[in-house]
Amino acid sequence: MESGSPRWLATAARLSRRLEDSLLVLLLAAMIAIGGWQIVVRNIIGTSLSWADESQRLILLWIALLGAVAASRDRKQLRIDLVSRYLSGLPVRFFEALADLLTCAVSAIIGWYSLEFVRESFGYSDTLVGSLPAWAIQSILPLSFFVIAWRHLLDAFLAVMGRPRERASNL
Amino acid sequence: MSFALLLAALALAGVPLFVVIAGSALWGYHNADIDLQAIAIEIFGIAEMPILAAIPMFTFAGYLLSEGGAPGRLVRLSQALLGWLPGGLAIIALAACAIFTAFTGASGVTIIALGALLYPALKQAGYPENFNLGLVTTSGSLGLLFAPSLPLILYGVVAKVSIDKLFVAGIVPGTLMIALLAAWSLWVNRDNRVRMEDFTWQEARDAVWASRWEIPLPVIVLGGIYSGYFAVSEAAAVTAIYVLFVEMIVHREIPWRRLPLIMRESMVLVGGILLILGVSLASTNVMIDAGVPGMLFEATRGLVSGPVSFLWLLLGFLLVLGALLDIFSAIVLVVPLLIPVAVGYGIDPIHLGIIFLAAMQLGYLTPPVGLNLFIASYRFDKSITQIYLSTLPFLLILMAAVIMITFIPAMSLGLL
User: Fold this and answer.
1) Looking at beta carbons, which residues of chain B come within 8 Å of A102?
2) Mean pLDDT per 10-residue interval, chain B, length 416 residues
3) Are B34 and B47 in contact (CB under 8 A)?
4) How far apart are the C-alpha atoms of B357 and B346, rounded to whole Å?
5) Which residues in chain A are closer than 8 Å to B60, comparing Cβ atoms?
6) Predicted TM-score of the model (pTM)
7) Closest to B26 (Cβ–Cβ): which among A28, A86, A109?
8) CB distance from A123 to chain B under 8 Å?
9) What are the backbone dihedrals phi and psi of residue A137, each rounded to the nearest 5 degrees, phi first?
């Protein structure tokens, strides 16, 4: 953990990591279980589950976005990895800081407009999977993009300061 | 145009691809006076494609398989059944890697899980070192034309073509690649005195018995899909449940506390792919609204005179693309723009898919960013130049296979 950062921030970061990882694991387990149960119900009991299909699709959205958050934490996003393979030292730090700042900016913009999207859906009281409020399910959009933006802001800062990368992934 | 160049430069500078793609979509919306909220709606569109649920479940099953003893059992089984052939071990490497990659989705897992077993075995059997390096590096992406590989599923989703048909279309081209590489392996080692295993019924029986839980897996997946018993995403759920049962309860080779870690690890790849898919849905619509496919078609018309010259142009383009972009990003970004143009030249979207994936497979082996080159260099502790030179003959053979696959559509479409 970063010695210079306030303790509450470190605690919040740790809790957030735990929460993200646990949710990801639980959702994948739920998706597999629903998929299996659906087959059992259809082939043995002979009915179809009306909620199963839609809930699986929404779980997929959550997995995709939480997986994207995890990928940004591990710095395993898909990218053309020329710079870090063929350069070293200061130029790498420059390009990393640039990449982090851009990622932060674009993610923040997507997060902001997703928040608008969620607000509208809150205003219309939309529902999904029967009676679940749509805004609650859609809120993963702004949340995940804001978390990605925040992490890359810290990463950019660390890149400029010349701190090692591994630290960055812990924040 | 200058904006496109800026984006390309940013991508080359290592900015994550989703940022570059989302940036282009946001810019396009801004220019067309569309509310930027549209990007949220497009990303939410991930939740409107039921077939995508197959991706996390197959990926997880593949990761879990590679963690336990399954790779070792697969190698033992192939060795027991094929070890008596001349060049047997080389052919074993090709066959085992192809089967394994089909399940792990060509994510580089094959080289790590199987290469580590095959490379020392090949060396011990007396094959030359550079041949072994080339063979193992090449094999890491070999099975991606076989069901249920992730790139095949993703192509089906993006191109809106039948995934069942794609699975069938990949069989002959994928087998051709293995056959050509096997023939080459035999030819190169014609003068080598390589130790051959004696075939014994005892070992064959034992190896089959040891793999008795893994052998039904392809049958369950493909049999289930083609008998109409379940859909592709259901097959993924069944695969995940079956692999969980076999690895965690029957074999108990993976400690339970590792399971959440493996689940998370596999979802990192899934998140990376699906995020790019989500933002590409936005950027593709921007480009279609701007009439980019039509412009591309017009532009190629100036360059080529008919389907044959179009295919050559396409091949050249795909080889460059594959050298720069990973297969998943290339599929979601390029396929929607390519399909209308290819259809304009009378090329079947299924055939196009097989060409696309076969050509992108070469991208794993070409510098500057070929993933398998780097994984092999890291895994076997050899310089990237040595890996590249040892892989080159295999790359040329695969290129010949890709050319055949491109110009003989019957190979892809014959079984449909």
Assistant:
1) 10, 15, 19, 23
2) 83 90 93 92 90 90 87 86 81 88 77 84 86 92 89 93 93 95 89 72 90 87 80 89 94 93 92 91 87 84 86 91 86 92 93 96 84 85 90 95 96 92
3) no
4) 19
5) 28, 32
6) 0.88
7) A109
8) no
9) -75, -40
